[in-house]
Amino acid sequence: MDILNATSPYTNHTKGKLEQILHPSHPLCRDDVVWILEFIKKKVAEEDPQLQDLSQPRLMRNFRYFAEVAMMLIHRRNGFDQEADRLKMWLREAAYGLQDPSKR
Questions:
Q1: Which residues lie below 8 Å from residue 21, measured CB to CB, with a gap of 6+?
Q2: Organism's domain of life (predicted)?
């Protein structure tokens, strides 16, 4: 089995999940937010080439929104209905550079 082909479904699934969660009509849940934070953490740890192309100010902005989302998770125990739009904007900013450029 070709390793590249073996990883393609995972990549497509991950890309699809990211797009689904960030879609304006998708209702957010805690698991979605945690999934995106884990995804970003993994990409940073892997030194993803998409992130390496970003400027330092852009990376700092990504980190700021990553931290905002993480702190919201820590401090809020209820759902995200009331602040869903703001939270989605923060998630898009935190994942900037890892999304399909046409979806930014």
A1: 28, 32, 35, 36, 91
A2: Bacteria
Q: How many CA atoms lie within 13 A of 11 on its CB side?
A: 10
CA distance 39 to 35: 6
Looking up tokens 């939270």, which residue turns up?
87
Report the distance separating Cα 49 and Cα 83, nearest Å: 32
pTM value? 0.79
19's tokens: 């797009």
Long-range pairs of 38-42 with CB within 8 A, sequence gap ≥ 24: 39/14, 39/95, 39/98, 40/66, 40/94, 40/95, 40/98
Higher pLDDT, 86 or 37: 37
For 60-91, how does the pLDDT look when each residue is reduced to its tens digit (9 = 90+)?
Answer: 999 999 999 999 888 875 656 667 888 899 99
